[in-house]
Amino acid sequence: MRIARAKADEMYAQALAEFPFECCGMIIGPQGEDVGLQDVVRPCRNVQQELHQKYPDRFPRDATIGYTMSKEDIEAIMQEAQDRGWMVKVCYHSHPNTGAYFSQEDRRNAEGWDLWFPGVRFVVISAYPGEIRDIQGYRWDDAAQTFVSVPVEVF
């Protein structure tokens, strides 16, 4: 997967601005695997902290180690993509103070997204105080019945 530098920089800026909490969002655009300048990065509000405070038994992770995209943001992004005849290309989030791996929690949260958004890729950004250390991509593999790593090239 190739991501235009300007689009990667938008995600990086969000990850640093929301640090030490996980950031999250989607990228929408015309059909195709690459994320180019015509594609649009749409940050989502991470409501994990609110859910954790209100329902700690159901949401034991706080926003430093978890994310839940705002339902309203997801709906607005899906509507925008539909109105433009576009697709959701990427769902992304950051991992503060750790690597850009696809955790078991990430895998559980991502299950089924490929049914709603065929071809969607998942991007994880490793964020530390004042710096981005890594970006990794993942996708669902029907044959393997699991998520697999997808190389990310920022161009």
Parts with pLDDT < 50 across at least 5 consecutive residues: none
Overall shape: it is: globular
Mean of residue pLDDT?
97
The CATH class is identified as: Alpha Beta
Q: Under the CATH scheme, which architecture would be assigned?
A: 3-Layer(aba) Sandwich
The tally of helices reads 5
Please indicate the count of domains.
1
Instruction: Name the beta content range.
Output: 25-35%
Secondary-structure element order, as H and E? EHEEHHEHHEEEE
Euclidean distance between termini CA atoms: 10 Å
Describe the sheet with the most strands. 6 strands, mixed
CATH superfamily: Cytidine Deaminase, domain 2
- Over the alpha carbons, how many angstroms does the gyration radius reach? 15 Å
Walk across the major sheet and give the strand order.
Answer: 3-2-4-5-6-7
Structure classification: alpha/beta
| CATH topology call | Cytidine Deaminase, domain 2
How many strand segments?
Answer: 8
Helix content: 25-40%
